């Protein structure tokens, strides 16, 4: 059985050190994961320079509460990520905690050194599909990795939680390459996300669900007051319980099919113990995720042209909101975006990785159904 812990937390102004302590108690406490003197790496969501109120990033109050607890335990703490825009330091400065981290001796690490997965000797054995996977070598210098994801909707994967947050352990320049290689197939992309999570083998995952994001996530959605923190040693189990809370079917999220394919525990809710309360106590209504109509991989290949024209979703530009900053063009791994007077996405080249939507600073790009996809979804819902 896998254990997931949950606790009510309505505000970042609460004593989050106390909240984290109570949250981790059913898991054995922080000491079960980090011994005194251990070198601990914190991996929050540092997607891009945004304010805490945007709900795009792991909240600085949660980060600092954990830093204080680890420091009190005598741990040597570092923090970092591979942001899609800017550096980890720039994002941390925007969050307003750079000075306090520096004062406490917390090192801010930029992921720059990609190394083979074979160097990650603590990873469990499993059947790998992506043997040329490289991850941030800086992680190898630490005894423990603590993953600090933010609960958000996501254009490509539906939702981004603990498993998806570890994609940030891929060094920046390689992210676009992986998006290009597997981005057209969400099942394949989910598979690489699970392989990354298994390889990094973070010992603890603490989800920031005090204020999350739904709608046009992960950077331009609607901040939602959700009111909880969640933790587990198993990222898939944590993700699975969040899906229970938001009342969605796991079939909407390819991450679980990939985890099941790899034999990862935590996919089935009846094999998960939720400590801290029942699902009904934390239920989230009307959580909006980008709708997806997924054909299986065989149908996708066999009816590729039909799928592209009639069923597959489109990334749509709001030209009135667009500021012509060209960030979408810069972040498109498929080179499907061209800008003359206006932004244009070439459907024949677009792989639906949603990088343009993710990094648009003004939320001018959204993932939308074509009418046939809407019809198919209604038919599917009627049959279920």
Q: In CATH's first tier, which class of the largest domain applies?
A: Alpha Beta
User: What is the element string, with H for helices and E for strands?
Assistant: EHEHEHHEEEEEEHHHEEHHEHHEHEEHEH
Strand content: 15-25%
Radius of gyration: 20 Å
Instruction: Give the integer mean of the pLDDT values.
Output: 90
Number of domains: 2
User: Count of DSSP helices?
Assistant: 14
Q: How is the main sheet built?
A: 10 strands, mixed
CATH topology of the largest domain: Rossmann fold
Cα(first) to Cα(last) distance is 29 Å
Could you give the count of β-strands? 16
Give the overall shape, derived from the CA principal axes: globular
Helix content: 25-40%
Query: Structural class of the secondary structure composition?
Result: alpha/beta
In short:
By secondary structure, the chain is an alpha/beta fold.
How would you sum up this structure, described in words?
This protein is an alpha/beta fold and 384 residues long. It folds into two domains: 2-282, Rossmann fold (3-Layer(aba) Sandwich), CATH 3.40.50; 297-383, 2-Layer Sandwich (Alpha-Beta Plaits), CATH 3.30.70.20. It has 14 helices and 16 strands. The protein has helices at residues 16-24, 60-72, 88-95, 98-103, 162-165, 172-182, 186-200, 235-245, 254-261, 297-302, 304-311, 327-331, 355-359, 371-383, and strands at 2-8, 39-44, 76-81, 107-110, 114-116, 134-136, 144-148, 150-154, 158-160, 204-214, 222-232, 272-275, 314-317, 337-339, 343-345, 365-368. The strands form four sheets. Strands 1, 2, 3, 4, 7, 8, 9, 10, 11 and 12 form a ten-stranded mixed beta sheet that branches. Strands 5-6 form a two-stranded antiparallel sheet. Strands 13-16 form a two-stranded antiparallel ribbon. A hairpin with a 7-residue loop joins strand 10 (204-214) and strand 11. The chain starts with a strand and ends with a helix. Mean pLDDT is 90; it is low at 293-302.
């Amino acid at each position: 059985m896998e254990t997931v812990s949950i606790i009510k937390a309505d505000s970042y102004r609460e004593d989050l050190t106390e909240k984290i302590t109570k949250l981790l108690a059913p898991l054995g406490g922080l000491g079960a994961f980090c011994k005194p003197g251990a070198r601990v790496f914190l991996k929050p969501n540092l997607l891009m320079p945004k304010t805490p109120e945007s709900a795009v990033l792991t909240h600085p109050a949660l980060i600092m509460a954990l830093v204080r607890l680890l420091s009190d335990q005598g741990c040597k703490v570092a923090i970092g990520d591979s942001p899609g825009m800017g550096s980890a330091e720039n994002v941390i400065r925007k969050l307003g905690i750079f000075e306090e981290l520096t004062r406490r001796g917390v090192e801010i690490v930029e992921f720059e050194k990609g190394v083979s997965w074979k160097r990650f000797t603590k990873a469990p054995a499993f059947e790998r599909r992506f043997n040329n996977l490289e991850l941030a070598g800086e992680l190898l210098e630490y005894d423990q990795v603590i993953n600090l994801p933010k609960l958000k909707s996501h254009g490509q994967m539906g939702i981004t939680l603990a498993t998806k947050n570890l994609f940030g352990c891929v060094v920046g320049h390689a992210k676009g390459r992986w998006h290009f290689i597997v981005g057209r197939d969400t099942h394949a992309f989910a598979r690489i996300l699970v392989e990354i999570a298994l390889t990094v083998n973070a010992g603890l995952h603490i989800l920031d669900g005090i204020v999350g994001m739904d709608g046009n996530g992960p950077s331009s959605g609607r901040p939602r007051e959700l009111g909880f923190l969640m933790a587990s040693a198993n990222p898939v189990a944590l993700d699975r319980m969040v899906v229970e809370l938001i009342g969605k079917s796991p079939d909407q999220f390819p991450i679980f099919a990939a985890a099941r394919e790899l034999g990862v525990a935590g996919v089935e809710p009846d094999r998960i113990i939720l400590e801290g309360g029942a699902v009904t106590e934390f239920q989230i209504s009307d959580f909006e995720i980008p709708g997806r109509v997924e054909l299986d991989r065989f149908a996708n290949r066999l009816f590729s042209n039909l799928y592209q024209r009639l069923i597959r979703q489109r990334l749509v530009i709001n030209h009135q909101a667009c500021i012509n900053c060209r960030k979408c063009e810069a972040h498109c791994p498929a080179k499907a975006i061209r800008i003359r007077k206006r932004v244009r996405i070439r459907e024949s080249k677009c792989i639906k990785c949603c990088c343009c939507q993710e990094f648009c600073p003004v939320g001018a790009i959204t993932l939308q159904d074509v009418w046939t996809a809407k019809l198919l979804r209604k038919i599917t819902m009627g049959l279920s």
